[in-house]
């Protein structure tokens, strides 16, 4: 299954999502914002804690369902030396996701700096003792 991938996600967030309740995340890193730009609610995302440049076959993560997406611009003003200030804008994406399955990267399809990260993933089997 080919899906966009968010990388450098905190292991604590991944553990929280595995509990199964929908959670809202705010993403500000450029590589993840670019990846989310092509996503629509109802789609899937792969999420992993590895850095984007380290993403490779065999990396484990989770597959999530995207429930909602919102993009906003944040204005940041920094003051230095009392009279000089710098104003910047930062794009932030808030998305609500829900855990779907544990998964493993089969192949990294695209992993360029200014393009969406896309991976081919395999859902991990879930075994229940009876």
Q: What number of domains? A: 1
What value does the Rg take, in angstroms?
Answer: 17 Å
CATH class categorisation: Mainly Beta
Question: What proportion strand?
Answer: over 45%
Total number of helical segments? 2
The number of E-state strands comes to: 6
Instruction: Give helix % range.
Output: 10-25%
Major sheet description: 5 strands, mixed, barrel
Structural class: mainly beta
Uncertain runs: none
End-to-end Cα distance: 29 Å
Provide the spatial order of strands within the biggest beta sheet: 1-3-4-5-6
What does the average pLDDT come to? 90
CATH architecture: Roll
CATH fold naming? Archaeosine Trna-guanine Transglycosylase, Chain: A, domain 4
Structure explained in plain terms:
With 130 residues, the chain is mainly beta. The chain has one domain: Roll (Archaeosine Trna-guanine Transglycosylase, Chain: A, domain 4). The protein has helices spanning 11-18, 30-36; strands at residues 2-6, 23-27, 44-47, 60-80, 84-110, 118-123. Strands 1-3-4-5-6 form a 5-stranded mixed beta barrel. The longest helix is centred in the N-terminal third of the chain and has 8 residues, at 11-18. The chain starts with a strand and ends in a 7-residue tail after the last strand.
Quick recap:
By secondary structure, the chain is mainly beta.
């Amino acid at each position: 299954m080919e899906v966009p991938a968010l990388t450098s996600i905190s292991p604590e967030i991944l553990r929280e999502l595995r509990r199964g309740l929908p959670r809202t995340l705010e993403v500000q890193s450029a590589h993840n914002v670019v990846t989310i730009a092509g996503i629509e609610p109802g789609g899937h995302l792969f999420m992993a804690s590895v850095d984007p440049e380290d993403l490779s076959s065999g990396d484990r993560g989770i597959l999530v369902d995207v429930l909602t997406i919102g993009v906003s611009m944040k204005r940041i003003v920094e003051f230095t030396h009392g009279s000089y200030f710098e104003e910047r804008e930062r794009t932030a994406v808030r998305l609500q996701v829900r855990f779907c399955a544990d998964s493993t990267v089969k192949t990294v399809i695209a992993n360029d700096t200014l393009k969406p990260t896309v991976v081919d993933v395999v859902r991990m089997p879930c075994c229940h003792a009876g």
